[in-house]
Input
Amino acid sequence: MAVKNSTAKILGVSAVEISDNSKIGKVSATYVSQNSCPDCPLKNNGCYAEHDFTGFTTRRLNAHGIEADQLAENEARAIDGLSGYLPLRLHVVGDCSSNERAETVSKSADKYRARHGQPVWAYSHAWRDVVRAAWGKVSILASCESLADARKAFTRGYAAAVVVTEHKSSHAYKADGLTVIPCPQQTGKSANCSTCKLCWNADRLYKTNSVIAFETHGRGAKQATAAVLNILQ
Output
């Protein structure tokens, strides 16, 4: 069935039927104010969502000043309004920083998945505070700035994604007891998330001790690289 593009706008939240983000491909997506985010070393310090075209959306959503609990409720409503015909990327910008907020959003993600069997995936900086179970069947990856933190995320039941300053190789490699897979979209092995699909199966990544590595990118890459290097010192 052909999917018609549309955008649902609820205070502090935007949900699109078909993303125009070339990295993630032809998928549905949600964007949420950064008020939903936990403390993050990249916030106002190179976060990709604060620059380029996504930055315009981020600033508009932030301007509403909606609190985190309400943002989770609003995002759930926005997800409920999507058709469910495409895979869904949660939080191109934004997060859920408490168990209750993650549960609110994941319940709507469950309903989304049930409509047409499409996967739902996301990344979260709140993995230290939010239990993995709160995300239910969402393919959720802990967002980390070091392999040491990725290992900690694994002990909490999360698969992980790690930010790196540069890819050491275009091929998977072993490091600190983990298999590091450079993002295939960034290394030219895949056109986008729709063709790659690795992050759509966090359970498999978890079982194989694999992490996805994302090189700092976008107009804030220099800031993000400096922030990551500072963490690694």
User: Anything to note?
Assistant: Residues 8-232 form one domain. The mean pLDDT is 93.
